[in-house]
Design brief:
Blueprint: E1 5-10, H1 20-33, E2 37-40, H2 50-61, E3 67-69, H3 81-86, E4 103-105, E5 108-112, H4 132-143, E6 150-154, H5 173-182, E7 187-190, E8 196-203, E9 206-212, E10 226-233, E11 236-243, H6 249-252, E12 253-254
Parallel strand pairs: 1-2, 2-3, 5-6, 6-7, 7-9, 8-12
Antiparallel strand pairs: 1-10, 4-5, 8-9, 10-11
Length: 285
């Protein structure tokens, strides 16, 4: 792959609390740049309601490029536990062919990694869990790629296993990061926390680049709605955090993964200041 391949990475659309201006902005950029693919890392809906899924699936279906979609914790049925355990993805039926779909682009493969589960032994169930089966399936897909193929992995939850205070975030995140680093993936792309990040994570098998997308909803945390434009070349990935207010990429990216995705304020409040990376955090990409 001797030339940059452009990908759009979006996450946390949260239909039901979507931001129409941000969605229109994304569509305009999509038409202007015509990326090779759109990678959606989960949370298409706010509460997995039928009307939210209808709107989300119609919007995703309108994207005239290859698309892959991860399942987010907000996309699991909230109010119908029978459906959650028996048929949790039935509301994705309109875009079923895009769900957790591997993409094979010129010189690059995009491989899914499921981090959402029907239930967990801890609460809340909204946090990530990389099960042994999910990791095995992802690694097997990576191992089947032809020699020399670059790979990106998509998931909903960042793989950070514990926050700086020791609070458990994504179960088995460390072993998953090590397995991906061992296979030399270019990066793992995630969402969930509603702020963008680009973190070089050390593992026993080498370093793993973790790239997070912000949100295209009104459920913002500390930065405006945004999405990532990725330029993938032979030597790595350049990230541009595209947003309505033209905030520079470095100011849009947080320095560490927070313990949860809950916004610190209500969507109708004034927009919080951007570029809130703590002074003690190391620089990120």
């Amino acid at each position: 792959m001797a030339y940059p391949l452009t990908l759009f990475h979006i996450s946390d659309l949260h239909f039901g609390l979507e931001d129409p201006r941000a969605l229109d902005f994304f569509k305009a950029e999509l038409a202007r740049e015509k990326p090779a693919a759109v990678l959606i890392t989960g949370d298409l809906t706010m509460r997995a309601r039928h009307r939210e899924f209808r709107a989300a699936c119609a919007w995703v279906s309108s994207l005239d490029v290859p698309v892959t979609v991860e399942v987010g914790n907000h996309d699991m049925p909230y109010f119908n536990l029978i459906e959650r355990f028996v048929d949790p993805y039935r509301r994705f039926r309109a875009i079923e062919s895009l769900l957790e779909k591997a993409l094979h682009l010129p010189g690059l493969a995009v491989i899914p990694l499921k981090t959402v589960t029907r239930a967990q032994w801890r609460f809340p169930w909204s946090n990530g869990w990389v099960t042994r089966q999910a990791l095995d399936e992802c690694c097997a897909a990576l191992d089947r790629l032809p020699a020399g193929t670059r790979a990106i992995v998509t998931a909903h939850h960042p793989l950070t296993e514990r926050d700086p205070r020791g609070k458990l975030l994504t179960i088995n995140g460390n072993s998953a990061m090590e397995a991906l680093a061992k296979r030399g993936v270019f990066a793992i792309l995630t969402g969930h926390v509603h702020d963008a990040f680009d973190i070089d994570q050390p593992t026993p098998a080498g370093r793993l680049r973790m790239i997070g997308a912000g949100t295209l909803s009104k459920r913002i945390r500390s930065t405006p709605p945004s999405f990532n434009v990725l330029r993938v070349g032979d030597d790595g990935i350049d990230v541009d955090v595209r947003n309505l207010t033209d905030v520079p990429t470095a100011a849009m990216q947080i320095g560490q993964v927070p313990e949860n995705a809950l916004p610190p304020r209500q969507p109708e409040d004034p927009v919080a200041p951007v570029g809130h990376v703590p002074a003690e955090d190391p620089p990120v990409h």
